[in-house]
Amino acid sequence: MDAHQHQHGGSDTPAGDRQRPDGGHAHSGHEHGGHEHGGHEHGGHKHGGHEHGVGHGHGHHPYLPAHIDLTALAVPDTMALLRPVLPEPPAAICEVGAGLGALAAALAGAGYRVTAVEPDPDSAAAAADRGLDVVNAELRDHQAPGRYEAVLFTRSLHHIEDLPGAIEHALGLLTPSGVLVLEEFARERANEAAARFLYDAIDLLAAAGVASTSQEDDEGRPQPTDPWQRWQHNFVPSGHESPEEAAHRPLHTGTDIVAALRAAGLTVTDEPTIGLWRMVAQRLADTPVANDVARRVRDTEARRLADGSLPALGRFLVARR
Q1: CB 3.0–4.6 Å: which of 12, 105, 242, 246 could bond 51 by disulfide?
Q2: Which range of residues forms the domain containing residue 143?
Q3: Can you tell me the distance from the alpha carbon of 11 to that of 39, in angstroms, rounded to the nearest whole number?
Q4: How far is residue 25 from each of residues 33, 40, 148, 193, 319, measured CA to CA in Å?
Q5: pTM of the model
Q6: pLDDT tens sequence across 20-62
Q7: What burial class does residue 67 get, using C-beta atoms within 10 Å of its C-beta: 0-12 exposed, 13-18 middle, 19+ buried?
Q8: CATH number for the domain including 78?
């Protein structure tokens, strides 16, 4: 792992049953498998990570097949956010932490000239197999001053250790009128309602035999039964994490990232978005109903965000000079 950047990003996964979900981009690096998070392929795995606490399937249903790839749901969602803020095609765009290249491929298909920057060699090779222009490097090593009209971080910036340095380097890649666009987590906004939504959905789907869960975390410790305590156990650092657990935790919160963007003198718009659905979907097995279940969970979360009964655990950021 590079000292500059967490290689294993942040998945959306709750702790305990680590698998590589995707849910989101994961980090700057691998698309993973489910990794939000950080990774995602895009929506599906990006890599990196696992959501802490979400599990392998050694819980209720050890026979469950591989987890689903959420790309079909996640990429259109992100594209819908991007279209109003990106310049018109064929603008030059750089995606940092492109993972397997699903989002970059969608942007290229829309007529953009896309460069996918991805430090993980396997993920970079997979992205190149899509016919993309891929740079297998860390962000700091990609030297292309003033080349791009937009630089995208899709759930990847939270894994780069030097946050001000990464923002400064990304700005150097932009044209004078270029835009910095980020899709990020906002787990610091979590509350008891969010925790109950997440774990009630996971436990219900696991009981129905279409998702995996575990009663223990990665260290063999029992998961708390109370949803909020379970969230705290899985997502709030205790100082006693194993090296693997520590490697999968985001280095920066969404609040940290917004503050760093503003400290760089940028004007930032901050749109609240949903994020829990990816964490649920990362647990779904690859069954005929999986995509429909994921879509329904996503739509339910969106309705509850709109009516104020759930917090926004995602944020879509647009930063301009």
Answers
A1: 12
A2: 1-321
A3: 6
A4: 9, 3, 21, 24, 20
A5: 0.81
A6: 333 333 333 333 333 333 333 443 334 333 333 333 333 334 4
A7: buried
A8: 3.40.50.150
